[in-house]
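User: My advisor, Dr. K., asked me to get a structural model of this assembly before our group meeting. I'm new to this, so sorry if the format is off. These are the inputs:
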Amino acid sequence: MLSIGRRTLRGFALTLVLSVAPVAVQAQAPSDAGVLETYADIALAGYEDALMTAQTLDAAIDALIATPSAQTMTAAREAWKAARLPYQQTEAFRFGNPIVDEWEGRVNAWPLDEGLIDYVAAGYGTESDSNALYVANVIANADIIIDGAQVDASDITPALLQQELQEAAGVESNVATGYHAIEFLLWGQDLNGTGPGAGERPFTDYSTAEHAERRAAYLKAASTLLVSDLTEMVANWQADGAARQALPELGLSAILTGMGSLSYGELAGERMKLGLLLHDPEEEHDCFSDNTHISHAQDALGIQNVYLGRYVRVDGTVVEGPALSDLVAAKDPALDAEIQGLLADTLAKMDVMVKRAQTLEAYDQQIGEGNEEGNAVVQAAIDGLIAQTRGIERAVALLELSGVTIEDSDSLSDPDAVFE
Amino acid sequence: MQIRFALALIALFTGSMVFAQDLGQRPDLGADDLARVRAVTAPTTDFSRAETFETNPAGKGTTRFSPNQDAFSHFLDNLDFAQEEQFKLGNALFRKIWVSSPSSTQASDGLGPLFNARGCQSCHIKDGRGHPPFAGQAENVSMFLRLSVPPGEDDTRLALDGVVAGEVGDPVYGTQLQDFAVPGLPAEGRMVIDYTPVPVTLGDGTAVELRAPSYVVADLAYGPLADDVMLSPRIANPMIGLGLVEAIPPQDILLNADPDDVDGDGISGRANWTIDPETGAVALGRFGWKAGMASIRSQSAAAFAGDIGISTPLVDLPHGDCTERQSQCLALPTGVQPRLGASEAPDPVLDLVTFYAQTLGVPARRGVDDPQVLAGKAAFYGAGCARCHAPKFVTSRDAANPAVRFQLIWPYSDFLLHDMGEGLADHRPEGQAGGLEWRTPPLWGIGLTQTVSGHSFFLHDGRARNLTEAILWHGGEAQPSRDAFAAMSAKQREDLLVFLQSL
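Assistant: The format is fine. Below is the predicted structure of the whole assembly, which you can bring to the meeting.
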């Protein structure tokens, strides 16, 4: 009820500002601690939901391995897609919290040289001087060599994946764990280029195909790790968890850094703009499953969640409380309204991209060279993300936050700040 | 090592007259600020406690993540969100694997035809230091051989104001040995390293065994190398802090220059003047093992062309290092697509990769207050190491990127050339750098080499297997410092190494 009241007040303030610009109605500002508590509560709920859906995925993988069939394969794929929804929303916590950022590569590293894990099509190529493990195919080979040293891969275990294979030889594309490794094992390579269609791995890869047992062992090991890694992150956000404990020192800038870095550099830049620049279907975040549109849209939703201090859980219940939005509104209602509008606008543009992916052409087709209409749909979402970052930067200035990674040349030349 | 001796350069380089008026001055600073800069960059004499800001090697850009394998891969901490995007796009292109032409992904082709690597990250693994092949490792990554011959009568290199840029390549093999080629074309050959043990006994009787490398080229596919060919092995340099190095005013680097050792301290410090391919003007070389490159952009473009065989707007060589005598190579298709741009890596690829290289941060120091670190720091200064491994600079207030403006940085290098003795000599000049000379390499981040790169091989060819060996290889102008280290007690040596590990 309280939250409805606040929202009404903000709407009222916006009306005032639009009609009689100089008049500002000051809303009651929540405390920073209260805002951070909501933020941590949303993180906890988000990672709990990610864990729960990963456990459902793990059970579906057990069923696939026990009884390989078209049905169990489809069920596992659906469980993977369902698991992506809450996880992607938690990405808003990544960049503001070092604990999350340093952990993230274990569960969501991308892009990957999938030839490390399993068989690949001939068009993938057979060698890369940058990655001696480009076609190591651990599922088919019990003995592999990493940096000149023999590694025993006769038992495919979580420890083998995490300690030996992940980022083996210092090559970041040696991704052995996480959502995308599992995605590859459920879908296989998407060999359609910028044509329609996702990966089409047959369920017989887990029954009659060569190395089916080792493939199943790999899939189970990766799924086990995903569950244990998410369990660890849930603990980090509980009352005595390290990430929650670190928040008072990180302050509100954790929220804004997370929003800005995910919006601009990570999502608009590396995950979207690069694909448009190169028109390369490989430059797609969920490239095996053709689920990229959902991943991007859920990222944007996660950014809105932390700003509004409101998260709708997988079971439909709502976690909410004092929000960054309220802090901004208390100082500058017009800016808060503007940021809310920018976040909503991005989501609307993401929705156009999602609808297009669901009805007309997949994300990897939308970024294809010469597809002017598809390119424009993706570019609009990018523009929305960049525009909302400008709003976030103004919020940073408004709240006079020091820790956020925004500096101007004046502060660098400030005699008191110099050399720090 | 003294201000007035940089004057000797002026006579040679009329194009650099600006330095004559501004010697010891800086165009970006007034007198008050200059005095503050000189005071803060003066070498410390107090080893009882850490210096102010000593934990921040990159000033406000210092990165503060856990010192793990990713420690060299973070952007400067003071970038804004838009710059972060440029960094990440540059990072993606830095990781990108280029493919041979023709290919279905036309924005990604143009590899070779001859090449050492398919992408930047192939050699700059985790943005860290390259290495010679590990034992049991068949493929050679992150190290190659530079080739050149003494210039003859028909030297066609770019020359300006007495400065000659670059080297004269082998008439057949060009300026470096490419050990890979696209399908259908033979690779040029492969580098073979042979190590000879060199026993050394330290002052306290401790025995150390160095290994002296020798290099030959096997499987030459295009006939013999020139009789007078000169080889220089090079490992990939760490990528951290480069944009800050670029922002050091040349005047401040030249303050340490003493090319004729007029002050008689046995240490020269010479500038490797070169010609910036972008401006066509004489510029101070500061990047690379012999300081042969003046800017990160020109270094990146040269690496695209020479190492990967990708042309850029700055180095328009779609066939990379193919020479006229390698006609089969020159006849192969390139990756130039006119509708995408005039080069294989059209704009904004070079801009983004350059920006990435300019904005990699430097990790925070660990343990600056630790008594053993401070004792090691005192030993480092006491042995004279800091005379070339100059601890501090303050970057220019006029730097293009606000993130690198007016920062107190701690690279531990003077970025000048020094005679390092016969033991390390490659006998291969590069620009103004002689065959005995090497640029003082920065030491920031050196203590994280094992963490980031999984090895502890140092020096230009990775011959040193740890920091002790690296120090013991120092000769020439650094011989007295090397001897001082060798004469230290085991405790003092350990302290000094602990200090280096804290960098």
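One thing worth pointing out at the meeting: Chain B touches chain A through 62 residues (CB under 8 Å).

User: Perfect, thanks a lot.
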